[in-house]
Design brief:
Length: 306
């Protein structure tokens, strides 16, 4: 068994559903494409996207002597929550923050690589540094960019969380690249309530409900119509045919927090800051804060009471 095969096997043992390897090189085409998107002003005021742009597409600029990128993915596809609040929270946010769990598992995978290759060095990334995760996932043979701008895998769909190891070890890369499997399907485009999906598999972040409910906008910016969502938005993924046939997976590290599934609107509005921190302090919801969430829930309660 080659070193690359051992790494893939260990990744699956650690709970990842996908593992691919790409050779480090500048992704010039993707870089130019991203620059055009920024130039069109579709970043929605997210200033961090304009920093270190070149590094996103050239790992050697992130880690000296980088040779390989190991890209791992885990599926969080599960039945849609039925609660009046939980159904309005994006599925990825129902569990412990993936930045925590995926980073832990990737660190264990990097430790394993160092056991096999004592001279190995590397860094772990989980959406915490300027690296174009979806671009490198495509480069590693894990899928294609769907019309909704997300990575799509033919069996697992797009409910995927990604993480990467950039390492100095030269691993055998996955040479197979998946072609576009969306065909003429436009269900995600037509279903997006904010009309945020652009023709070129990009998103207008200024319109996107996920951006408006998760990220803090520019000073004085109103949230606008969130179409009933409290945190994030899964509309484009829920209508995707690949997600309809994708298996529902149950990973211990990514199981929903019971209270998030169970709390109704009245219980949410009764939460104190200490309650919120205790229950959801390690979930993506902490990024938004209790007050903003409660304000949105009040609007939902108000509409439902009319």
């Amino acid at each position: 068994m080659s070193l690359s095969e051992k790494i893939r096997c260990r990744a699956y043992e650690l709970g990842f559903d996908l593992c691919g390897i790409a050779a480090c090189r500048p992704l010039a085409e993707q870089y130019d494409d991203f620059r055009r998107w920024l130039g069109s002003g579709y970043d929605g005021g997210l200033e961090y996207l304009r920093r270190n742009v070149e590094k996103r597409f050239d790992p050697a600029m992130l880690y000296e002597q980088a040779q390989s990128v190991v890209v791992c993915g885990v599926s969080y596809n599960r039945p849609v929550a039925s609660g009046e609040v939980s159904s309005r929270i994006a599925a990825y946010a129902h569990s412990t923050d993936y930045h925590i769990t995926i980073r832990q598992q990737l660190s264990r995978l990097l430790d394993y690589l160092k056991e096999l290759e004592p001279q190995a060095a590397g860094r772990v990334f989980t959406d915490t540094a300027p690296i174009s995760e979806k671009s490198w996932a495509v480069e590693a043979g894990l899928g294609w960019i769907g019309r909704h701008s997300l990575l799509l895998h033919p069996r697992l769909g797009s409910f995927l969380l990604l993480g990467e190891i950039v390492t100095t070890v030269r691993l055998d890369p996955d040479e197979t690249r998946m072609g576009n499997g969306c065909g003429n399907c436009r269900r995600c485009v037509d279903a997006c309530p904010a009309k945020a999906i652009l023709p070129d598999r990009k998103i207008d972040a200024g319109k996107c409900i996920a951006r408006r409910t998760i990220e803090r906008g520019q000073d004085g910016e109103a949230e606008g119509n969130l179409h009933g969502w409290v945190f994030g938005c899964d509309v484009c993924q829920r209508v995707c045919p690949y997600n309809h046939k994708a298996p529902e997976l149950d990973h211990e590290l990514f199981r929903p927090i019971p209270e998030l599934e169970q709390l109704d609107a009245v219980s949410w509005l009764a939460l104190t800051e200490s309650d919120f921190d205790r229950l959801f302090g390690q979930t993506p919801l902490a990024r938004c804060g209790l007050q903003r969430l409660q304000n949105r829930i009040r609007k939902i309660v108000g509409k439902n009471s009319k």
